[in-house]
Every structure is written in structure tokens, then in C-alpha cells.
Amino acid sequence: MTMQFAAAAAIESAVTAVPAAAPEAAAAHFAARLAFEADVSDVHTDLTSGAPGVVVVDSRSRVSWDQGHIPGALHIPTARIAELAPQLIGGPESRVTVVTYCWGPGCNGATKAALAFARLGYPVKEMIGGFEYWAREGFEVESTGGTSRTAPDPLTAPISGVSCAC
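RE: above sequence
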């Protein structure tokens, strides 16, 4: 055995220290994640195309909403979902899919809001990345000061502003 091969054989993989799931289990897991989550690019595509059957809900406070929110979103703070959802969205029988968001990956407000909608019987998904990634991808933002857009962050979105198409 060469010295180089012996050294390579002694290296342990951090990735494979816990073996990957069987392909069938992995397929079930990733399909389930897609049933619970939507990314900002997909939400943006649906909102700009006018795709039916999707309602986007910002679950943050009024101050946060005023600072900036997704154009076309409804403002329903989590604590008021049970009270306001039926009049703003319709009942669960309307069969629209509710997409919740909050600040970003470090905030679980959208998860709490999605849970509240699910408990009321609404089909619901959480927008991963939240408002932070919406803004970082360069999509329009509404605030009390009007509508604005920043350049896409090259660490989160293609600089061209065109979807990554993943």
C-alpha cells in the first residue's frame, strides 16, 4: 500500500459517518418537505403570474409589516389568525393554499402561523427563507414609503435577477 493511499484510507467522512437514508426513505422525506414548504422564487412566480389558489400571509407585527412586506400578501399576525382568516381568506372549504412567512430562517413565526392555519383546517405551506430571502433575491418590497427593490444578493440569487430555475 502506498503512503498516499494509506493516508487517504485513514480519513473519515463527516458526511457518511451517518449513512444516507435508503432511496425510498429519502424520496418520502423530500416529497414531504415539498408538501410543507415553498421557496421565495416559487412564491414570487405564482404571485407575478396570477396563479390561482395561493394566498400569501405575513404573520409579523404591524411595525414589521410597515417596514416592508411582499406585495399582494395579507397581513394576519399569528395571534389573530383564527379571528381574521375566515373574513380575509374565506374558510378552509375555499381550498386555497395559504403560504405563511415571517422575517427569515432565524425566526419560527411562519411555522407558528402555518400551525395555526393547519389547526383551523387550511391547506398551508411555509415560505422558507421568509421576508429576508425575498428581499435578498431582489424581489419588490412594499412599505409605508412605497415600493422598492434591491439588487439580488449574489450569495442567495443569480446576479441577473433571473430565477435559478432549480
